[in-house]
Each structure stands twice: as C-alpha cells, then as structure tokens.
Design goal:
Beta-Lactamase, alpha+beta, 4 domains, 12 strands
C-alpha cells in the first residue's frame, strides 16, 4: 500500500525490517550453537542441529547486507518460510517436545505483525501449523497433547500478529496524518510572504526555526540566522534598546510582543518590519518557546511618510494662505473701516441734530464691531502672538477672545514649558489646541476647560480637558466644514513625529493629549529612512 508516493504498508522502513529479521536469525543461530554442548534429549542429533544453526547464520548475514531499499516490502516475506522451516527442523533434530519451541513461533509472528499489513499473520498461520506439527511424527511423545498445544500456540501466534498489525496500522495512519499536516503547515509557512520564527523562551532569543523567507527578506544565509546575536546586531540603533526592553517585558509577563522597528539587510539598507510574537506555554504554565511572525512594512511606511509629507506641505500652504489673507485684511478692509470710523466721529462733531448724532453713533458702533471681528479673524488666520509671545501667550490670547463670546466656558491655562517649541512644532500644537478648544465650546457644551502645557521626558505635551457631554468611540463627532476634525488632528501630530490621544465617555467630559518630541534642531526635512516613529507615550500621561 502506498500513500503520497511512499510505501506505508508497515510500521518500519523496508531496510530496517530486513535487518531486524537478520538480528533474529543471528540471535537464534547463536542460541542454537551455544546450547549444543548442553545436555539434550536422548533422541537428539547434534550435527543436524549445527547445520540448522549455520543455515540460520548465513540467512542472517544475507539479510543484514541485502539491498532491501531496492526491493518492495513483500520481498522480506521469504524470510518467514525459511524461519518456520528452520524452527521445525531444529525441533525435530533436538528430539524435544514442540512446546519448548513455541517462543520461536511467537517471535516470528511478532516480526510479521510490525513489518507487514493485516491478514499477513493469518496467511502464514497454516504454514506455521505444518512447521509445528511435522516434528511430532519424529518425536516419541504424547501426540495428542502436542497437537493440542500446537493448535493453541498457532492460534496465539496469529492473534499476536494480527493485533500488532492492527496497532501498527493505526499508528501508521496517525503518523501519516501528522506528516501530511506538517507538510501542509510547512508549505503554508514557506509560501506566506512573511518570516515565521520560533525561538527559545530565553533572554537572548535562541533561534529554533526560521522560515526560508528570512534570506529573501534580509539577504543573509539561512545558517547565519542560527546566531541569536544576528537579529539584535542588525537592529537600528534607535530601536535596539526599545526592542530589548519590550522583549524582556513580554517574556516575563507572558504578554504578546508587538513592535515596529527598523532592521538592516545584508546590503546595508534598512527595512521597516512589524514583529508580533507570543510565548507558548505547557499545561503547567511554563514557557516552552516563542512563536512569531515578521512582516516587511517598508512600503507601507514609505507611503505613510509620503502621506504625512503631503499633509505637512498642505498645512504649510494653508498657513501661508492664512498669512496672506490676514495681511490683506490688515492692509485694506481694516484700514478702510478704521478710516470710516474716524470720518463718522468727525461727522458727529459737525452736526447738532440729536437724531443724526444718535444714528451716527449707532453706525460708529457697527463699524467698531466690524473692525473687532476683522481683527479677531486676523488672529484666527495668523496669530502673530505665536511668534511674539510663544505658545502659551498665543493660547492665552486666544482663550481671552473666546471668553467674550456668548455661552463661553471658563478657561484655565497652566504653562510649565521650560523651553519654547520650534516654530513648526509650535504652530502644530497651536492649531491642534485651537481646534480642540473650538470643539469644546461649540459641541461639548462644557462649562469649564483646562489647558496644561508641559515639557516632560523629552516631549512637549498639551492636555486639554473639559466637563462637557463627552461621547463614545462610536459617536466620534465630525467637525464642520473648515475645521480639521479628529482624524486630521491625529495626522497633523504624527506629521511632526508625535501622537494624539483622545479619552472620552458620555457625561464625563473629554481629554485630548498631544505629545511631540523635543527637537534639538529643525523639525522639517525628515527623510524616508527616518519615517516618523510611533513612539511610546511619555511617562505619567494619564490613561
């Protein structure tokens, strides 16, 4: 019987079956030769017994050196008639009762059971009965008792052989199913466009298995991945410590390892990968190994960088347009409206008609309100205080103006900034804060809004909280036209290499946190190899 092109008729390979038969032949001949000098039955004949032992020895030697791997499994069956014949001959020449040779018949049928398919033992049972019964005609003994013992012995031999064949068939089937499942799993693993690995659950990550995608991904040979230091050595310097800390933490806690980082390929270029792994444990909870998958996300990161770069350019263009419009308003409409107000004052002094004076005053108030609104619009478009007074000063001026609006909440602003953010980051933080404050006033129906500016653990952090109506994650409000919206706020923060996090619940207000890393140089000009990273949140930021 074959399965998948492989001979699966027996429990053991054909060559091993032949050599096992050789061992049985050689062992039997050794026993026969060693026992020849011992006392034997009166009718025993030693020379024929020696011939039987020599034939068994020659059969064993042939069986050991025979090229069984070239032959089919059934070729080994010729060992059975020869073995049964030698057992019968040895029994006849020994002159002893056949019951003493029953163990040899059992050994033959054990070999048949583990080496050949079911019903083979039953097929050879008649031949075994002949080999057992024939010597009885040459031995003076109780033939009736020997015949009964022969029938029982052959029956037991057949049962032993068939039972072993059935067990072997079940075992073969389970082994084949396991092998097929392993081959399918291996084929799946090796075809997945990702690197699959298994590591020892230790601090160094000793590799136990690395899929063939590893050389294609990083360019190193498969043998090099057996070195546990290879992976860590190829990590980007900015990611190495973070990777080791996260791996140590997940090893000790049993949590899932999830991380995006850069790793150097054999040709020197850096790839962005996403690594996810989980510690597999036994029934007692002890770690067995770590199983994970590494996916190349370089193209995704490049697209993300391009998207964020376009967003940054869009924001820059928008700010430039705001600056131009604000300048145009200041240079033309505000000047004209201011001049109109001065003319109205002159007209009031030149007339004595009370009704005309009152009408001119009302008109002057309208012009003043228009000028104030234009100045407020100019500040909305381009807060010059941001360059003059910094982030805290510009936000304080903005909330002061917001406080004059109807139904405005009360504002509190606390600044703990040690240094002023660079102009580009300052503008990003201001625009995000401006949008969040507008949402709090118009949509959250808040009565109190708190603003905290601080520099913590290498980050500029802006926290804005309110006591408004809040919302659930499924009810995230859409911003009206002309506003950034929560998704755009997050993208704007990420374009500066930072993060934006929102925490809200119905009836318990909203907390928006923005964190942008402190830079010691210009914040513009990032290259695709340094795509803004999804950094960890600075410590002590509330969850």
């Amino acid at each position: 019987m074959t399965r998948g092109g492989r001979d699966v008729s027996g429990l053991l390979p054909v060559q091993l079956i032949g050599r096992l038969g050789a061992v049985l032949y050689l062992g039997s001949s050794f026993v026969a030769i060693v026992t020849l000098p011992l006392p034997q039955a009166p009718d025993a004949s030693r020379p024929p017994q020696l011939v039987v032992a020599v034939v068994a020895l020659l059969a064993g030697a042939f069986s050991w050196y025979a090229p069984w791997e070239r032959w089919q499994r059934r070729a080994t069956l010729w060992l059975v008639p020869l073995a049964l014949g030698l057992i019968g001959a040895g029994n006849a020449f020994a002159g002893a009762p056949s019951m003493g040779y029953g163990i040899f018949f059992v050994v033959v049928f054990v070999w048949i059971g583990i080496a050949h398919p079911r019903w083979t033992a039953t097929l050879f049972a008649p031949l075994a009965a002949v080999a057992y019964m024939v010597p009885l005609f040459f031995i003076p003994s109780d033939r009736g008792l020997n015949m009964a013992s022969g029938a029982l012995t052959i029956l037991v031999c057949a049962l032993v052989g068939e039972t072993l064949a059935w067990v072997a068939a079940r075992f073969r089937r389970s082994q084949e199913d396991l092998h097929d499942a392993e081959m399918k799993y291996r084929a799946l693993v090796e075809q997945v466009p990702a690197l699959i690995y298994i590591q020892a659950a230790d601090d160094v990550g000793t590799p136990l298995y690395v899929s063939p995608q590893a050389p294609r991904l990083l360019g190193h040979t498969q043998e090099k991945f057996a070195d546990p230091a290879l992976w860590v050595d190829q990590l980007h310097p900015q990611d190495r410590d973070r990777f080791l800390r996260e791996r140590s933490r997940t090893n000790s806690s049993g949590a899932r390892f999830q991380m995006e980082y850069q790793i150097r390929a054999a040709d020197g270029r850096y790839l962005w990968v996403r690594d996810e792994a989980l510690v597999v444990r036994d029934g007692e909870g002890k770690p067995l190994f770590r199983q994970g998958i590494v996916v190349d996300i370089t193209e995704r990161k490049r697209a993300e960088f391009q998207r964020l770069s376009l967003l940054s350019k869009l924001v820059s263009a928008q700010e430039e347009e705001r600056r131009r419009i604000a300048g145009a308003i200041h240079d033309d409409p505000v000047q004209i409206m201011t001049a109109a107000g001065m003319r109205l004052q002159i007209l009031q002094r030149s007339t004595s008609d009370p009704r005309q004076i009152q009408a001119l005053r009302r008109l002057e108030e309208i012009v003043d309100r228009a000028v104030q609104r234009l100045r407020h619009l100019m500040f909305e478009l381009r807060p010059y205080a941001l360059d003059r007074d910094g982030l805290a000063g510009a936000l304080r001026m903005y909330v002061d103006m917001q406080s004059r609006e109807e139904d405005s909440p009360s504002y509190s602003l606390v600044s703990q900034l040690k240094t002023e953010p660079p102009p580009a980051d300052r503008l990003v933080l201001y625009r995000i804060a401006q949008e969040v404050l507008t949402n709090a006033r118009k949509h959250a129906r808040a009565s109190r809004v708190a603003i905290v500016l601080e520099e913590r653990n290498g980050y500029y952090v802006v926290q804005i909280s309110d006591d408004g109506v809040g919302f659930t994650s499924d009810e995230t409000p859409d911003s009206p036209p002309g506003h950034l919206g929560l998704a755009a706020i997050t993208e704007m923060a990420e374009s500066a290499g930072g993060r934006c996090r929102l925490t809200a619940s119905v009836g318990r207000g909203t907390l928006v946190e923005v964190a942008i890393p402190v830079r010691h140089g210009p914040s513009e000009g990032a290259t695709p190899a340094e795509v803004p990273r999804r950094k960890e949140w600075p410590k002590a930021v509330p969850a």
